[in-house]
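Hey team,

Filing this mostly as a record. A colleague (T.K.) asked me to run one chain through the structure pipeline before their review meeting, and I want the input and output archived in the tracker in case anyone asks later how it was produced. No errors, nothing strange. Just documentation.

Input sequence:
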Amino acid sequence: HGMFTDEGEVINLSAVGKEMDEHTGNIWGLIFSLTREDAERLGYNSAEQWMNLLRSRRNDIAKEMNIAPENLRWYAAYHNAETHPHVHMLVWSKRPQEPYLSTTGIYNIKHTIAGDIFRQENLCIYKKQTLARDDLKAEFRARMRELEYEIRRGDFDFAPELVQKFSLLCEKLSEHKGKKQYGYLNKNTKKIVDDIVKMIAADGRIAELYDLWYQCQCEIQRTYTDEMPAKIPLEENKEFKSVRNNVVATAFEIGHIPTQRRREIGYDYTEMRDKANDFEYLKEKAEEGYFMAMYRLGRYYLENTTEMIDAEYWLEQATEGENTAAMYQIYKAYRDGKFTTTSSHKMKYLRMAVDYNCHYAEYEYSKILKENDPKLSREYLERAAKHGNPQAQYDLGKQLAEEGQQEEAIRYFEAAAKQNLWAKTSLGLMYCYRFDEWDLGMEHLNEAAERGYEPAVEAVNAIHRTTIPKNNYAEKQILGDEQLDAFMEEIKKEEYWYDFFYVEVMT
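Output structure:
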């Protein structure tokens, strides 16, 4: 009869037929077929070779069909068709309710069987694919070393968007308390890493190697299906997860991206960071002409001494190197009364920082203009938000919400929350009590709390201690006067709720 099954089992055709007739569940028929050319070349032109293959893979097939190995029943027969030698395999379970075969399961069974059949032929493709993968990883590491080298020198030859993303990642990692590996990061930080990988993956050589890797993947898949795999982006491919960890490791090593724009060859930014409060070191480097050291020295005088003339001098020197932080620091010192020369200097340095797209300065300028020129104030608020200022993003979101543009408002709230724990906490509360998105709101609050932000911790604890805020807002109850009084009395017991409801809701 030419049928075969598990080794050692004697096949009785009538008994098999009776078992199948009485079976109350599904019986699956699987067909594995080859062209005559492939069957002859690979040795799958006889029942014995197919029998050995299916016996060796019976547990893998059972797994993909959600059948316990001990419950698997199967029989197969080889048909030596002229153009396409093939095997019919019937599969079922002793427990009729047990099996389930999904599209993924079918794919995995094909992949397993074809992988065994074409293993030798695919070896050269696997080697080629492995080489492309290893070369891509090496090229990626080289690009990361170049990026790190340029950043430490203060010479940003890379795309501004990439440097901005890297700066944000450095900031996020400085707040991260767990392992500095991709898998241990929160989803927002992972998104930043993914964006960086995506930008670097656009590099010509890296894109070329990834195309080669994908072509090899298609060649392998052609052995068992005509449907080619989707080309997933590099940043989402688990085969290349090491490149994401490489980004994290590099950002952690750098720690902080200097704001200095002009190249300062030979200046060790790591050393400067470690000696930010070393007066003698900063003075020596500032006198040697390093703009970042001038800025740090000016900050040292400003924050640790009463020598405001020296502070102003060194900060002004730093502005010659287009240091926007120095420009904005001078403005703040005038604003706060620490520098006392003519007030025109204050606006001079603020506008200078604005011209260099310093988002802190743009946000400050927007606030100054708000009373006398609301339209121009809005323009600078939008600029600051676009350049990544979290407070500007939050304020712009509030204005858009008041204008009825809720979708756009949420986009800015989310942008602010990605950078700032205060904004994340406020957004979490808004999702809960304004937008009636309780689960999403709690996700933001819990994430901020997990990162140690005390107001978020207080908010989460308050939510657990009292249900009145949640119940009345989530259910959108309209309260009578007595109910409202009772509600507000309960709120007053929780300091955080009291502040939030009066500031965010009552206004």
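Quick notes for T.K.: Strands lie at 3-4, 28-33, 72-79, 86-93. The chain has four domains: 3-117, 121-254, 258-356, 420-507.
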